[in-house]
Structure formats: structure tokens, C-alpha cells
Amino acid sequence: MEHIMWENGSAVLKRTDSSTYHESMQRLAVASERIIRKYYRSAMPVDMKSDHSPVTDADRETEATMRELLMQEYPDHGILGEEYGPYQEHARYQWVLDPIDGTKSFISGMPLFGTLIALCDRGTPIMGCINLPILGLRFIGTAKETRMNGQPVRMRTPTSVHEATLLVTDHTDVWRHKDGKLFDRLAARVGVFRSWGDCYGYTMLASGYADIMADPVLKPWDMLPIIPVIQGAGGMITSWEGGDPLQSNSLVASHPDVHSDIISLLNRPPATEEHC
Q1: Residue 167's domain is classified under what CATH number?
Q2: Which residues form the domain of 70?
Q3: Are residues 13 and 126 in the same domain?
């Protein structure tokens, strides 16, 4: 059965299938939230993975539970998860899971973390969920619309880069993976610069409280769920260089009216910089 239509170059779910998958994402979010709340601000061991990122029993149990639910509901679909890797990776439809995006915040007792869920059709994310379990906020987006707790949300429109609020997850990572001097030039020009990052930063954009989010390096489970949420809220999302984010490991999200100016500031030396 064909699930996808195409409008203006974007993958759009049919109405009936959108409702079915939306309900599935809601169930996954509820199940993950129950587990995460049980562990939040509790004494628990923290292990370090091979890439030196932290992982806890909460990460593992949350992903295992979501995978089990998906295997029961969609036995012919694939799964890609941060903790347990790929399952049926050649299936047309793939669910992408990040049980706790922002584990450093989670283990520090900060509430600015979330669970990420995406449904992809042949690698293209067609629905995404960012669930913030401690804050009680759930964003589910498609190419057409993003809703927070059932209510439509939209990005605000900054009149210029100078009035924008810029967010980043880790300033050190910017210098490690991209041109830190050019990023700092952008940071010096915006109205507000803060490190309210990880998936929380993208929800700030989608709900109209910030304007630019920049991540210099991401894994598929970090980025695929975020793309539909930003697009459905009227935002533009590209790679750091302004290209297709699906062909990259970086993201820059903002309002379309200022996106080209932001990409220019992140990539062009001052001598060739256009007026912003």
C-alpha cells in the first residue's frame, strides 16, 4: 500500500496513514516517558561509550521498550536506534530512535533533554517527534504541520539576524568540527546567544521562542526526527554549508527569511561576506 504523496518536492503522508503513525508516536512517547521519569534524578551508574558519550540504564531500557512496541505493531518495518543499532535495515520504512537526546543534561538533573522518534520512507523523514518528558511538552511534526501537545506551532519571523536568538548545543564542538571564528562572528551579531541545545533548542525554534539552532556534528538518530518538526513549523533546515541535511552530519535551522544570511556568515570569510 502506497503511503506517500509528493507536494512541492516534499514527502507528505496521506491523511489516514498520518493519523495511524501519529497515534503510534504518541504511544512510544508515553511509554518512554514513564521509564525516563522513573530514573530522572535518581542514583544510577553512568557508563561511557566508545565515543566517550555517557549512557545509562534509562537510555537502554527506554530504547528496548520502544523497539519491542514497534516490532509488535509494525513487524515489516525497520528500526535504527542509538543504543541497539539497526534492525531490518533494508526495509522501506524505518523508525529512528534516540531514547535520551541530551544524556549529559539528564544525568546532571537538568530537564532540557528529550526522546527523539522519526519515521522514514526510504531514508526520508516523514514524521518526527521530540518529547520532553520532564517539561511535559510533546512536538510531533510532518512536512505540513507541527503540533505541541496537540496545538499547532510556528516559528516566529525575525526582521534580521541582529534581532535573532541563536542556540547551540556545545560551543567546543563548533570549534572542533567547523570554523569557530566564523561561528563566533555570527554569535556576535545576533541579539541573544545561548547554549540551550540538544533537541530542546529545536523545540524553542518550533514554538517561536528562538530563531537559529546550529549543530556542527550529529548522528542520524539526532537529526532525522528533528527535520519534520522544524519543517512543519515553517522553518528551514539545511546542513552547515546550506545543502541537503540528509547528505550531511550537521544541521542549521532557522526561519527562511534569514537562513541564507546565516549560512553566509557561517561559511564566508569577511572579505567576501554579503551584507546581512
Answers
A1: 3.40.190.80
A2: 4-152
A3: yes
Q: What is the pLDDT of residues 107-141, one digit of tens each?
A: 999 999 999 999 999 999 999 999 999 999 999 99
Instruction: Determine the average pLDDT of the residues in 187-203.
Output: 97
Bridge partners for 118 per DSSP: 96, 128
Size (the chain), residues: 276
What one-character DSSP code corresponds to residue 142? -
List, in order, residues 6 or more apart from 265 with CB less than 8 Å away: 161, 182, 185, 186, 189, 273, 276
Whether 186 and 222 have beta carbons less than 8 Å apart is answered as: no
* Residues 126 and 147 reside in one and the same domain: yes
Q: Which three cell numbers stand for residue 246?
A: 540528509
Phi-psi region of 273 (alpha: psi -120 to 50; beta: other; left: phi over 0): beta
C-alpha cell at 78: 525497520
**Total-model pTM:** 0.91
Instruction: Indicate if the pLDDT at residue 4 is higher than 80.
Output: no
